[in-house]
Design brief:
With about 550 residues, this protein is of the alpha/beta class. It is built from 16 helices and 15 strands. Helix 11 runs parallel beside helix 13 and helix 15 packs antiparallel against helix 16.
């Protein structure tokens, strides 16, 4: 009988505690995550959010739930219109282009495609219908073609964020409008302005407000009651607070059981935000580092905690990913001659000493840690490294003369351990569809690009070092090796051969460079990172 999988516990923002996850319908999960406003390339704050919810999506599927995952696009918005005017492009064409760029980034980061990816412009009718219901239920009013939600008519306003109206700051996004009955009332429908996208409505031509889109689209695809609503901490207020108000005002039975929010990314110890100009796009990072390195970095901190982005951390993750794939490749290479014999041997092979325990522990740690509010750091920093150490020790055993049955036992152990590791990597999204060798080559290509050299340059340096050593010019040989190490390229002497692999660069002491002069690279990490929240990191709402 299959072993029962552990109960999943998630931190519920509205309850302010971890709770056992129990779906509305047994065996099925409905999940909505707020998506991007598509007016620019997505940044690493977006990556933080969508990698976190991708892990949740993957783990729910691993737990055998049938998941309906909805992640929207905001493709009509003030920012989109403003950017389109700046570049002289049609707003819909611009937003469509950046929707595709976002999807390209998500594919690079190995985020699975959601069940539905609705766009606001395709759901204006549903939005207008919901606004009409809110007005009919006495919670909204029309003024000069605009429609505002009346917070005074919704007594539970603030239950998610814990804020009281008197504590809120008016004009979270816009200046206070004197036409509002309460300064904290917010727009459901915006009247048309010249040159802007617009739709006809009972209140005049216009377009949807900021918050109403997610209420309407979540109801369209998941009904008014669903299991999980996710996004960044910056969306708790006002966006998610307003979503609750709108949805309940339109349909009093509306309810989301679990509100899940991810923490922010800081850049070199300072809050990362567009207004400060210190944010980095996903594309800027993945041009120099493998997307798996960025994903590894993001998973190295618990999703609800703040994480500090820096060159040293992304370099460490890049090396860790190389180590993962190199160890797996070494395993495949060593087993190539034994794998078939192990599978066809008439006498069943047993695990070597410690093999069963290693496999069982990895499986248990994987399930237990993910079930505890998606605790990926322990998996990356403890469970997987322990398994890889066991593989390397076992591979060394194969280098020594072994009896045939012992070789088959080693092969069985490594084959089953590799299978377990691949399952873990798959669920946390670090298992590529490419071969191990292809990923390793991609990692090498990235470090060559960062170093500004070609592989031929490295091979020539290796030849120069070998010649220097042959001529007993050891200091010259050491300098060649040090120069490459400073660029993130490590030389390794294996027998009479020298090979190279990426490594964390050995940094030289050098003066600080003003931030504006090094924007094209990822900046150097500072001490004492601050947990100050960033703005607009999850969805640019």
């Amino acid at each position: 009988m299959a072993k029962k999988k552990p109960e999943l516990q998630l931190y519920n923002s509205i309850a302010r505690e971890k709770q056992v996850f129990k779906p509305i319908v047994e065996g099925k999960v409905s999940m909505y995550v707020c998506g991007v406003t598509s007016y620019d390339f997505s940044h690493i704050g977006h990556a933080r959010a969508y990698v976190a919810f991708d892990v949740l999506y993957r783990y729910l599927r691993y737990l055998d739930y049938e998941v309906v995952y909805v992640r929207n696009f905001t493709d009509v918005d003030d920012k989109i219109i403003r950017r389109a005017n700046e570049v002289g492009e049609d707003p819909r064409a611009l937003s469509g282009r950046f929707c595709q760029e976002y999807l390209n980034d998500m594919a690079d980061l190995q985020c699975l495609i959601p069940t539905h990816q609705p766009r606001v412009t395709d759901h204006v009718d549903q939005i207008k219908d919901m606004i009409a219901k809110i007005i009919s239920n006495g919670c909204a009013y029309a003024v000069d073609g605009d429609v505002f939600f009346s917070v005074d008519n919704f007594p539970n306003y603030g239950k998610l964020s814990g804020r009281k109206l008197e504590d809120n700051r008016a004009g979270e996004r816009v200046a206070v409008d004197t036409r509002k009955r309460n300064p904290f009332d917010f727009a459901l429908w915006k009247s048309a302005k010249p040159g802007e996208p617009q739709w006809d409505s009972p209140w005049g031509p216009g377009r949807p407000g900021w918050h109403i889109e997610c209420s309407a689209m979540s109801a369209q695809y998941l009904t008014h009651k669903f299991d999980i609503h996710g996004g960044g901490e910056d969306l708790i207020f006002p966006h998610h607070e307003n979503e609750i108000a709108q949805s309940c005002a339109a349909c009093p039975e509306s309810n989301v059981n679990y509100w899940i929010h991810n923490g922010f990314i800081n850049a070199n110890g300072e809050k990362m935000s567009k207004s400060l100009g210190n944010y980095y796009t996903i594309r800027e990072v993945t041009e120099l580092y493998h997307p798996l390195a960025l994903r590894h970095f993001l998973l190295g901190t618990h999703y609800r905690s703040p994480v500090n982005f820096s060159i040293s951390q992304i370099e460490i993750s890049s090396e860790a990913v190389f180590y993962i794939y190199q160890t797996l490749q070494d395993c495949v290479d060593a087993l190539s001659a034994l794998r078939g014999e192990s599978e066809t041997n008439s006498k069943p092979a047993r695990y070597i000493n410690g093999g069963q325990e290693c496999i069982t522990k990895l499986h248990s740690d994987f399930e237990t840690r993910l079930a505890d509010d998606l605790h990926t750091p322990v998996i990356l920093n403890a469970a997987l490294p322990e398994a890889f150490r066991f593989i390397n020790v076992t591979l060394n055993m194969l280098k020594k003369k072994q009896q045939k049955q012992q070789q088959l036992s080693i092969a069985k152990t490594l084959i089953d351990l590799e299978k377990e590791i691949k399952q873990v990597l798959d669920v946390i999204g670090l298992l590529s569809n490419l071969t191990y060798a292809e990923v390793l080559q991609q990692l090498k290509d990235k470090v060559l690009r960062r170093a500004g050299v070609t592989e031929d340059d490295v091979l020539r340096s290796i030849e120069e070092r070998m010649l220097a050593r042959k001529n007993k010019e050891f200091s010259k040989g050491d300098q060649i090796r040090s120069d490459l190490a400073a660029k993130g390229i490590a030389l390794m002497d294996v027998g009479k051969e020298t090979i190279w692999r990426p490594c964390v660069p050995v940094q030289q002491e050098k003066p600080n460079v003003p931030a504006q002069q090094e924007k094209h690279v990822i900046p150097v990490e500072k001490e004492n990172p601050s947990p100050t929240p960033a703005e607009d990191q999850s969805s640019d709402k």
